[in-house]
Amino acid sequence: MDTSKYKKLFLQESGEHLKNINNRLLSLGKEPAEDTENTDSAFRSFHSVKGMAASMGYEPITILCHKLEGLLDAMRQNVLPLSQGVTDTLLKGSAVLGIMLETVSDDRPVKADLSPLLDEIDMHLKGGVEKKVAKHGPQKVRQALSLILPTTVRVDASIFDTLIADIGEFLRIKSRIHEIANEMHNFELSEHIHVLNNTILEMYETTVSARMIPLEDLMQNLPLIVRDISMSRGKDVEFSMHGVDIEVDRAVLNAIGEPLVHLIRNAIDHGIETPDEREKRGKPGKGEIKITASRESDFVTIEVVDDGMGIDHQRVKERAVEMGVSAEKIEGMCEEEVLSLICLPGLSLSREVTDISGRGVGMDVVKKNVEAIGGRFEIKSVINKGTRFILKIPFTAAIIKVLMVYINDMLLCFPVTRVESALQIQMSDIKSTENGISVLYRDMDIPVFDLSKIFNVPCKGLGDIIDIVVINHPDKKFGVLVDGFKGVFDVYIKPLPAVLQGMRGISGFTVTGEGDPVLVMDVANIRL
Amino acid sequence: MSNYQQVKRMINYGDKLIFNLAGEHIGIDVASIKDIVEVERFLPLPISLPLILGIINRHGELITVAELSALIRLHSVKSEPPYRVVIIEEGNTTIGVSVGAGNMYFLWKEDIAKGDISPVSQNDYFKAIITMDDVSIRLLDCSQIIEGVEKAVRECNITLSVFSPVYH
């Protein structure tokens, strides 16, 4: 196992345990009433370090902690009385542990001749080494220790949120200064602003990397949740996770924790059948729920897949009609649209309400949470085969590169990851089609849309030269008519106000140097 | 305690902002007001909901602004720039309401105590009527205003769709 990525965590946690051990050992004998608590606490800390060291393969640390914990255990069992000699041996042990942790930190091999110390511990355990131990107290060992500050610090995650918001504000102010420099034709100032921009982006990348955490940190409790729910529902479920070492911005993970638990609950409660039912349907008695994660460009796709009974499309339609959705509208829907109806607030397919699910509360929250961070939620399901819930989420939700365009005098942003190209074409290159107009782009006719109608802003009218942004939509490429390009910028994205959350097609907004809000398009969620 | 007494007790303890909209005197609890701003324009939203005028940026916070007269179904008073927007906050939700260009003044709690008040029943957006010197002031229920805007947006089932092709 590659343990290098866990080393930092090991050192951080062991360092905290060591600090506790020293505090507790130094308190021994001072307040006899607290000796039991201090002994217990030091014992638990040695035990924890032992477990972590064993996982990491640091054998000498494991052996040392095991012996020291044995000494403390003898005290806890009242087999060994507290004495200055025992305390000194324990402190000597903690000092040696400190030195060993330093060698781990320095990437040096953890080697130590522990035999004198281990002999000393054994002699205590056998009784009667008071004099010898007292002569060789921990002071000599401790002299070898230097005062070293820890290389990692624990901080509240919200500090990173504030830092990133501040960096976003830096970017906004920098944009304004850049505009002023351009107006003044001050090229020297522009040069400095360019350097400032790079520094701000470096700051951002460093800060965001500190806020990135692996998906598995979020999902570590899922196996227990699956176990508990499946047992309570009489289901037998094999649960597995794949690719969950992908690191994602904590701000994004914060939004998907609750949806993931909900999807898992639903999969067990409504998806996976009981072993008897499964066998009747020719399936193995044990159901399967699998979470897979993969990263593509700026997005992470998380799939929650079960091999259960699937979702009955007809039942979804019936329930949606009962909820007031027009039957005519439903008949015109494709399969994916029908399945998305289960995200309507209050729509439940279950005929039975359990303590876990069935109240129609949840899928709407899943969708809302995912979309609130600029993600996309999709459902695919086949009767008797199973269901696949797909969450496409951005791996970071803060600063992104956008193409800023004008729609009349209104500004609008497209994430550059979704922009195929920005074109200037002749009016004569535009073709009329049944549904409007199209242009030839790389040997392919692509439709062109006018966003001014959607935003209810006056259309400037078409001149001889037309500006078009070609968008790379997940379903197909299309063009958007624009009234000019402002440029490509790194912008800090803020979420939409609560009232507007759930608006598909807009992922958030940014603020220009002048303080004007600009909407950021969520291209993947635009309906074609 | 009767409903009347409850309302009287509630409204007697706070100052009010009063404005004239479509010939009516409307009041808002000052405690619910976060700011009053004047803006030249709104950032339009891709929805066709006349109630929503657009959004504004207030110190980095995006505020959705609604046309109050449309929400409370007064005679249509379409706002014109510069728009006067009262930003109200209830709980964690903040919205702006455009209140037109009519007179605006404060009514202090000591003055309100001298007037007559009566609760309003079965009205979505008002909680009481204050009568001062023969002038009736309808007191807005800010939480209902916010809920009304949220409901209207929710029912709009907003999905940005590029269904409208270019005319040529």
Write the layout of secondary structure elements.
The complex is a heterodimer of chains A (528) and B (168).
Chain A: H1 4-27, H2 35-56, H3 59-76, H4 84-105, H5 115-126, H6 130-135, H7 139-143, H8 157-183, H9 187-211, E1 212-214, H10 215-219, H11 222-232, E2 237-242, E3 247-249, H12 250-271, H13 275-280, E4 287-296, E5 299-306, H14 313-322, H15 327-331, H16 335-340, H17 363-372, E6 376-382, E7 386-394, E8 399-407, E9 410-415, E10 419-426, E11 430-433, E12 436-441, E13 444-450, H18 451-454, E14 465-472, E15 477-482, E16 485-492, E17 506-511, E18 517-521
Parallel strand pairs in A: 2-4, 9-18, 13-15
Antiparallel strand pairs in A: 1-3, 4-5, 5-7, 6-7, 8-9, 8-16, 10-14, 11-12, 12-13, 14-15, 17-18
Helix pairs in contact in A: 1-2, 1-4, 2-3, 3-4, 3-5, 4-5, 8-9, 11-12, 12-17
Chain B: H1 3-12, E1 16-21, E2 24-29, E3 33-39, E4 52-58, E5 61-67, H2 68-71, E6 83-90, E7 93-98, E8 104-107, H3 109-114, E9 116-119, E10 126-132, E11 135-140, H4 142-155
Parallel strand pairs in B: 2-11, 5-7
Antiparallel strand pairs in B: 1-2, 1-8, 3-6, 4-5, 6-7, 9-10, 10-11
Molecular structure report:
Helix content of chain A is 45%, strand content 23%. By secondary structure, chain A is an alpha+beta fold. In chain A, the strands form four sheets. In chain A, strands 10-14-15-13-12-11 form a six-stranded mixed beta sheet. In chain A, strands 2-4-5-7-6 form a five-stranded mixed beta sheet. Chain A has a five-stranded mixed beta sheet with strand order 16-8-9-18-17. In chain A, a hairpin with a 2-residue loop joins β4 (287-296) and β5 (299-306). In chain A, α1 (4-27) packs antiparallel against α2. Chain A is flat and about 100 Å long. The two termini of chain A are 47 Å apart. Chain B is an alpha+beta fold. Chain B has one domain: CheA-289, Domain 4 (OB fold (Dihydrolipoamide Acetyltransferase, E2P), Beta Barrel), CATH 2.40.50. In chain B, 20% of the residues lie in helices and 40% in strands. In chain B, the strands form two sheets. Chain B has a six-stranded mixed beta sheet with strand order 8-1-2-11-10-9. The radius of gyration of chain B is 17 Å and the shape is globular. Chains A and B meet through β11, β13, α18, β15 and β17 of A and β4, β5, β7 and α4 of B.
